[in-house]
Amino acid sequence: MTRKKKKHDDHVDESWLIPYSDMLTLLLALFIVLFAMSEVDASKFKQMANTFRSQFPGGSGVMEEQAPNSSPESTPLPKKENLVQLSIQEKERMEKAKEELESLHKVQKKIDSFIKDKHLSKSLQTKLTENGLLITILDNALFDSGSATVKTDSVSIGRNLSNLLVTNPPRNIIIAGHTDNVPIETSQYKSNWELSAMRAIHFMQIMMKNPDLSPKTLSASGYGEYRPRALNKTAQGKAKNRRVEVLVLPNYSLENAK
Length: 258
Prior knowledge:
Layout: H1 17-38, H2 42-55, H3 80-117, E1 124-129, E2 132-138, H4 155-164, E3 173-178, H5 192-208, E4 218-222, H6 235-241, E5 243-248
Parallel strand pairs: 3-4
Antiparallel strand pairs: 1-2, 2-5, 3-5
Helix pairs in contact: 4-5
């Protein structure tokens, strides 16, 4: 008789699954902890810690029962009275800035009346900007071509303007010279930058002769052709760029109040 061969089943050792499943469980617990820490809640944290400690007895536990570090989300909100105080202060700042704007507008109206009376509307312009009251004087109203000396018949413009800019309290005034992009090189000035700076200084010197205008509030600067108002492709554009600007700074604004 032929002996029947016994078939032997191959049994795979599955004992490795036990530590593997434990590791997965621990990883899952870790991700849950990380998620919970992103939204801090002390009571929920304590409750979760107790749950994990009951599921994993022995050892130091997956989560220690202690409050995590504070996060920006857990920072207490300002008290109601503090919010009210901030609102009052913000309102006061806005009121002061508004009053200063109205005061500068009154100065602008005086200068506009002077421009109208002297028929200077083609040479002088005013504009109330976020930086202050800007007065623009085209260079042909003050200087000869290539010169930084104020023309004799134009000295009165600087004197009258200085009278109109006397305020109480005084405001800081910046005088800036600008040119077009046509290169210049003379025995006096090697560049448009030098020419623009000297024009601003000479005009400032005329304003400084007013004893009621404090020299401490005045400053001058030259920008040459580097801050144009128009394209230098046409004669009209170049004429707009050749100018002296007088900027009257506000004593109070929302920017400097922050």
